[in-house]
Amino acid sequence: MIMLSTKALTKTFVLHLHGSTQLNVLRNVQVTLCAGKCLALTGPSGAGKSTLLRALYGNYRVDSGSIFVRHRGTMVGFDGADPKRMIPIRRETLGHVSQFLRAIPRVSTLDVVAAPLLYRGISDKEARLKAEAMLVQLGIPKAMHALPPVTFSGGEQQRVNLARGFIGNWPILLLDEPTASLDSGNRDVVIRLMLAEKSRGAALLGIFHDPFVRNAVADDEYHLEGRGEGA
Asked: Which residues pair with 77 in a beta bridge?
């Protein structure tokens, strides 16, 4: 079953402080993502891999083309222009793990991870129990759960980020370098989490610069050629 698709997706950035130079980052991108499969985005640095993930998550509005996701059983189109439309899609259907944790200072690690479940109306007790289990699975001991993650190391923050990203059991999960900053042991934990997501039928689209990770989880690749300059 198709969970996400794009048609002739185009995104250009205009550098107004540099003579209005246009960077054609995404050109005619056509991706199809199916349930239970993982598609790896490949291409050189600057090819637009992270830009594509942000566009699919609705952080960037595309210039032209179409994005469709299967939401509540129906393929729904969007271009990032309507934040209100994106709220239920993000809450129920579309998860995203970025390269960096963004958390409010003084908010506990447990609350950061439990937040996606609380947004869905899950009870505080159930959400916190699931958050605790996910954090322990990713090697964050209970003694650290009450602390704000901004006090953690880079690798620890990434594991909190991953816990928040995987806790929601989203039907579609976008992953931007999920194993960056991790040692081999924690990398293997994340690989197992991704394989479990595929087993339950989730569709994964990710950037995996580590070939070991890519070979372990990806069923296919979509190559981006790189950006070009326009007039």
From this structure: 68
* pLDDT of amino acid 18: 61
Task: Spell out the long-range contacts of 210-213 with Cβ–Cβ below 8 A and sequence spacing 24 or more.
Answer: 210/179, 212/187, 213/178, 213/179, 213/187
- Convert the pLDDT of each residue in 30-73 to its tens digit: 999 999 999 999 999 889 999 999 999 998 889 999 999 999 99
Query: Given its phi and psi angles, is residue 183 left (phi above 0), alpha (psi -120 to 50 degrees) or beta?
Result: beta
The Cα 107–Cα 105 span in angstroms is: 6
Q: Which of 217, 221, 107 is nearest to 164 (CA)?
A: 107
Contact between 65 and 6 (Cβ < 8 Å)? yes
Q: How many whole angstroms separate alpha carbon 65 and alpha carbon 6?
A: 7
Q: Taking the mean position of all CA atoms in its chain, how far away is CA 131?
A: 18
Do residues 119 and 87 make contact, with C-beta atoms less than 8 angstroms apart?
no
Rounded Cα distance between 197 and 169, Å, is 7
Give which of 197, 230, 231, 228 is closest to 26, Cα–Cα: 228
Residue 202 clears pLDDT 90, i.e. is over it: yes
Distance from chain centroid for Cα 191: 15
Helix axes 124-137, 109-119, angle to 10 degrees: 130
Phi, psi of 86 (to 5 degrees): -75, -25
Name 29's bridge partners: 9
Token couple for 117: 């479940």
pLDDT in tens, 122-159: 999 999 999 999 999 999 999 999 999 988 998 899 99
